[in-house]
Amino acid sequence: MNAIQDCTVLSNGVNMPWLGLGVWKMKDDGETEAAVASALQAGYRAIDTAAVYGNEQGVGAAVNGSGIARDQIFITTKVWNADQGYDTSLRAFDESMKRLDMDYVDLLLIHWPVKGKYKETWRALEQIYRDGRARAIGVSNFHIHHLQDLMASSDLVPMVNQVEYHPLLTQEELMAFCATNKIQPTAWSPLMQGNLDVPLLAEIGAKHGKSAAQIVLRWDLQNGVVTIPKSTNPSRLKENSEVFDFQLSAEEMAQISALNRNQRFGADPDNFNF
């Protein structure tokens, strides 16, 4: 974990970069394409989008126009809640592929655990995986009981679980479950949606000559969590990537983890209505 293009290895042997760019809330009016192009230029090699973000087209345009070989860039997209179910998920994936203008994605996720539907959706993802159109498949926003329920009726364990994860929401039991079952955790909203005004983070940052954001991103990585901070600002993109030239001590890691108060900035996967 010494450079931006360093990877973790998923349970099926696929390499996934530790750090990527998330594009949630980026507009598909040129903003997404410009941000992804900037990120790729800065050395990022992983881009995380979703059908519901409405910007897969911008992601695809930037990647396909980058001059970087497609197999050097790790693309994640997700099946949205309204599209869940076997046939509808297959159709939704076809639409995502058209918007991305790609033959395959590197990772396909179920976006949220829609009750009564996510098992059928998983069956569709397994088919897409067997067809070679997704190099890896996984889930997003799944609690332990959702994962157990899914795994009880499938031979294929999700390779990734993307969840809200940051110093105020450490989800330690979920992280331990993922580690035991070789499910790679990924953090969304790793920077607490900008709520970084925490004295401890500033204090530790001053010791290392780093910002509070860089301290949090490094904490994620040292906890073995893939991280996808969002930014459209080229200088912020660069700053977010400069987290491989220092290391937090065990004491600093523990101090940051102790900030946990089980605080969510997004919805609870057991109680969402979208």
Automatic annotation (TrEMBL):
Keywords: NADP, Oxidoreductase. Residues 19-260 form the NADP-dependent oxidoreductase domain. CDD domains: AKR_AKR5G1-3 (cd19157). Pfam families: Aldo_ket_red. InterPro entries: AKR, AKR5G, Aldo/ket_reductase_CS, NAD(P)_OxRdtase_dom_sf, NADP_OxRdtase_dom. It comes from the Bacteria. Belongs to the aldo/keto reductase family. This is Aldo/keto reductase.
